[in-house]
Amino acid sequence: METLSYETVINASKEKVWDALWGAENYGEWTQFFTAGSQMKSDWKVNGKTYFTNAEGEGMVSTIDSLEKPDQIIFKHLGMVDKNGNEDTESMEIKQWSGCFEKYILIDYDGRTKLHVEVQTEKSWEEHMNNGFTKGLELVKKMAETTT
Q1: Which of 8, 4, 11 is nearest to 114 (CA)?
Q2: Which one, of 2, 5, 52, lies nearest residue 27 by Cα?
Q3: Which of 15, 20, 98, 135 is the Cys-Cys partner for 143 at CB 3.0 to 4.6 Å?
Q4: Are 137 and 115 a contacting pair, CB within 8 Å?
Q5: How many helices (H) and strands (E) does the chain have?
Q6: CA-CA distance, 80 to 90, in Å (whole number)?
Q7: What confidence score (pLDDT) does residue 130 get?
Q8: For residue 23, what is the DSSP state?
Q9: pLDDT tens for residues 53-106?
Q10: Distance (Å, rounded) from C-alpha 76 to C-alpha 139?
């Protein structure tokens, strides 16, 4: 498992950056670089359920391990979900990466916000993650800096 990290400084408050990341109208925009039609459905509860899916409803089932809005959120990925809503958290393939984390930390930085992201992933997904986060966080920055 690799731990990849990304960082950008955004000329906006932590609240605006948080909204750019997790606002219902924004999430699908910045995550389009991972997969078209990206969606996130969450109960926003620690140890609850969060789904990161494509337009067909396929993707990952996760939980929120830690939540301190607007300072940080840490997701723990548990498994996969198919388009029929069936979750796989027990297969050998899933157990090889289940439990990996995805962290978003927002830090006050002289009136701006430093957004730090860490993701644990398999080496074979590194290029996909680098592309998605590099392009996606540029869009988060643009959205947060242009909202009033």
Answers
A1: 8
A2: 52
A3: 20
A4: yes
A5: 4, 8
A6: 10
A7: 95
A8: -
A9: 999 999 999 999 999 999 999 999 999 999 999 999 999 999 989 999 999 999
A10: 24
Q: How many CA atoms lie within 13 A of 138 on its CB side?
A: 7
Is the previous residue joined to 70 through a cis bond, with omega within 30 degrees of 0?
A: yes
Sole residue written with tokens 């986060």: 133
Phi, psi for residue 19 in degrees, rounded to 5: -65, -35
Tokens representing 84 are 């029929």
pLDDT tens digits for range 102-138: 999 999 999 899 999 999 998 999 999 999 999 999 9
For the segment 1-60, what is each residue's pLDDT rounded down to a tens digit? 899 999 999 999 999 999 999 998 899 999 999 988 999 999 999 999 999 999 999 999
Contact 18, 70 (CB under 8 A): yes
- pTM score, whole prediction: 0.94
DSSP state of 123: G
Apex 139 CA angle, 134 and 140, nearest 5: 95
The amino acid present at 141, given as its one-letter code, is K
Q: How many Cβ atoms from other residues are within 10 Å of residue 111's Cβ?
A: 8
How far apart are the C-alpha atoms of 76 and 130, rounded to whole Å?
A: 19
Q: Which two tokens stand for residue 43?
A: 């109960």
